[in-house]
TrEMBL record:
UniProt-listed PANTHER family: IRON-SULFUR PROTEIN NUBPL (PTHR42961)
Pfam families tied to this protein: ParA
Role description: Binds and transfers iron-sulfur (Fe-S) clusters to target apoproteins. Can hydrolyze ATP.
Gene (name only): apbC
Record family assignment: Belongs to the Mrp/NBP35 ATP-binding proteins family.
Lineage of the organism: Bacteria, Pseudomonadati, Pseudomonadota, Gammaproteobacteria, Enterobacterales
Keywords attached to this entry: ATP-binding, Hydrolase, Iron, Iron-sulfur, Metal-binding, Nucleotide-binding
Chain segments annotated as coiled-coil in the UniProt record: none
Record note on quaternary structure: Homodimer.
NCBIfam families given in the database record: PRK11670.1
Protein name: Iron-sulfur cluster carrier protein
Binding positions (ATP): 111-118
Length: 365
């Protein structure tokens, strides 16, 4: 096969890459300006992509689906792929100035306690990381700060390099801070609303976050004053509402959606947790909390169903061991599920959002 000119090579690769379809792509990769570099060296085709949202799973599909065709069309022996992420900063609700070092904040909330908001927040944070992003977690769940326990770093304390700011606790690659690192016993439980909101805003603004693509904020459950104040003041890009399929949880999830609407925070999706019980003995799936509720909610508010996570004993055991499922079983089925949800969320955040210049993080230490 005669060697292609660089222009011909670029045209061939562009055509194949442009034809690639994936649920996360609302425009093809060429229109997205993702194809950064194409070259043939020693009969190895080098292709570099730059994506504005966390896209590792999409990248794997692209390689699987196009490598053979590309070799055939270009005469290359193999393809050397490279993906770089340059995650876009997206417009925040009410154009609030961002938190230093943080590109995008995603609030994970629930209308009521115990639906698995923290479990979902942590596994999604780890899944976004696995998808190629740098991620942090702010545990704002003042009434049950479970993030330290779930990440296996109970008893740790953030250090302070300057006596004013806190260096986050690093756990499983995530930069984390939690009221649970700072307040022992049940002290925080008795804080009144304004005190709690102030403490949480301080936690957000006085943590020395490393450059983060996404900061997941595990919100306190419910829709009271604290939640409303936080939803209003945290520079959130979008929110996720976690619910279970029971009517009572759905009723509260509805209140959560209304609360975010009130303060102009877009709700990116609803996550149905504990949607099916999967028996650890026989694998039988049973809808012990009912079915169809989250779908009804998504229809009513025109908000997408971001995903359904089953109720399974291993998800709880992993968290109790301080080794969340996505971290403990990187190739497991539940990890696949969380990564699919995370990839879809990252993409939707980008497609629904408006790209703004990142804040320049200036910190005086
Ligand atoms: N899908 C699931 N399968 C099995 N166990 C789960 C699942 N989701 C959550 N759990 C378990 O349920 C319990 C409550 O979860 P979690 O603490 O995440 O809820 P929450 O909504 O954040 O609660 P709160 O708001 O009261 O802090 C935990 O023990 C957790 O491990």
């Amino acid at each position: 096969m005669p060697a292609l000119t660089p222009e011909e090579l670029h045209a061939q690769v562009s055509a194949v890459v442009a034809a690639f379809q994936h649920p996360t792509l609302q425009q093809d990769l060429i229109h997205l300006h993702a194809l950064h570099h194409v070259a043939m060296l020693d009969n190895v085709l080098h292709i570099e992509l730059i994506l504005p949202f966390a896209w590792q799973s999409g990248f794997v599909s692209l390689q699987e689906q196009t490598t053979g065709t590309l070799c055939r069309l270009t005469g290359a022996d193999r393809v050397e792929w490279r993906l770089t992420h340059d995650i876009a900063t997206l417009k925040r609700a009410k154009n609030l100035p961002g938190a230093k070092g943080v590109k995008n904040i995603i609030a994970v909330s629930s209308g009521k306690g115990g639906v698995g908001k923290s479990s979902t927040a942590i596994n999604l944070a780890l899944a976004l990381q696995a998808e190629g992003a740098t991620v942090g977690v702010l545990d704002a769940d003042i009434y049950g700060p479970s993030v330290p326990m779930m990440l296996g770093c109970e008893g740790e304390r953030p250090s302070s390099p300057d006596g004013k700011h806190m260096a986050p606790v690093m756990a499983h690659g995530l930069a984390t801070n939690s009221i649970g690192y700072l307040v022992t016993d049940d002290n925080a439980m008795v804080w009144r609303g304004p005190m709690a909101s102030k403490a949480l805003m301080q936690l957000l603004n006085e943590t020395l976050w490393p450059d983060l693509d996404y900061l997941i904020v595990d919100m306190p459950p419910g829709t009271g004053d604290i939640q409303l104040t936080l939803a209003q003041n945290i520079p959130v890009t979008a929110a996720l509402v976690v619910t279970t399929p029971q009517d009572v949880a759905l009723l509260d999830a509805r209140k959560g959606i209304v609360m975010f609407n009130k303060v102009s925070v877009p709700v990116l999706g609803i996550i149905e947790n504990m949607s099916m019980h999967i028996c650890s003995q026989c694998g039988h799936a049973e809808a012990i909390f009912g079915t169809g509720g989250a779908e009804a909610l998504t229809e009513e508010y025109g908000i997408p169903l971001a995903g359904k996570i089953p109720l399974h004993i291993s998800l709880r055991e992993d968290l109790d061991a301080g080794l969340p499922t996505v971290s403990r079983w990187p190739d497991g089925d539940f990890t696949r599920l969380y990564r699919d949800i995370a990839g879809a969320i990252a993409a939707r955040l980008y497609w629904d959002g408006e790209v703004v210049p990142p804040d320049i993080a200036i910190r005086i230490l």
